[in-house]
Amino acid sequence: MRQDVATFLISTGFEVAPQMLQNITGKDFRAVFQHLILYFDPLWPFKPEQRFEESFMQALKAMKYPYLGQIDIKWLPTPAAMHSWPALLGMLHWLVELGRVSCSPN
Q: Is the pLDDT of residue 102 over 80?
């Protein structure tokens, strides 16, 4: 999944080393997440005065993320932790798959 996410990010103009996703920081996670959401909706209102946790949950609700109840916002400051990274990586991978489907010709 890490490789899929890194490949998609690079294809959409986001510079990322695949190693970054092995031990991702809160700041990098936020940048990746915001890039993916803005890929779908360039006008998504990420407000600087709003806490990331709030905008994170609002964006996932808007995207109709099916496993929203399995994400804990307390994980966001340390996304690489053993207990949080599998779910957060899965969510990023879901967004990547959604991006692939939305831009693939039918």
A: no
